[in-house]
Amino acid sequence: MKCFLFVVVLSLVALINVARAELVSGPGAEKKLDALKVFVATGDQASREVEFIAERKEKPTVYVFVPAEKFSRPMARFIKTLDEKLNSDRMDIDIIVVWLADDVAKTKERLPRVQESLKLNRTTWCVYPGEKTGPNTWGINPDADLTLVIANGPKTTVSRGYHSINETDTPKVFAELPAKK
């Protein structure tokens, strides 16, 4: 009986991990990124439209796509923890968070308040002005709570979505960043 109970508990743990599992989202690994023109809501380029693939050129960048209705405290803790780690160890990498929203105007007003609350240093908050599913060629999965794309210049190294994410996922993401040049 104890053995059976142990197997049941292990199965439940496995199911929980599957629920948190990654899913296919984003352009895929080792792909050349197409243009990403977004409205920048915070930082030095606030209130402007910027095409970040051209802007970042050969610099490594972490792109995070967030459906506005799925933004959560655990997700904010993930972004904040990654921002802090980059700020202390990898000043060559920035995070570009792109919100995917029905109401772009409302999101433009909300993002500076999010930044004020989190006080991030390496993160720029943006909103995609087009379809809520993001740029067509970026392949954002609408089932993903967050899509992470790590790029080394204009080419991806990592691309995946998450059903759930929090600060405990940061070490794995940090380990996948391109090596310093």
Summary, kept brief:
This protein is of the alpha+beta class and 181 residues long. It contains five helices and eight strands.
Topology, pairings included?
Elements: H1 2-19, E1 22-23, E2 37-40, E3 48-51, H2 52-56, E4 60-67, H3 73-89, E5 94-100, H4 104-118, E6 123-127, E7 146-152, E8 155-162, H5 170-175
Parallel strand pairs: 4-5, 5-6
Antiparallel strand pairs: 1-8, 2-3, 2-6, 4-7, 7-8
Could you please describe the fold and organization of this structure?
Strands 1-8-7-4-5-6-2-3 form an eight-stranded mixed beta sheet. It is 34% helix and 25% strand. It has five helices and eight strands, in the order αβββαβαβαβββα. Mean pLDDT is 91; it is low at 4-10 and 12-19. It has helices at 2-19, 52-56, 73-89, 104-118, 170-175, and strands at 22-23, 37-40, 48-51, 60-67, 94-100, 123-127, 146-152, 155-162. Strand 5, helix 4 (104-118) and strand 6 form a beta-alpha-beta unit. It has one domain (23-175): Glutaredoxin, CATH 3.40.30. With 181 residues, it is α+β, with helices and mostly antiparallel strands.
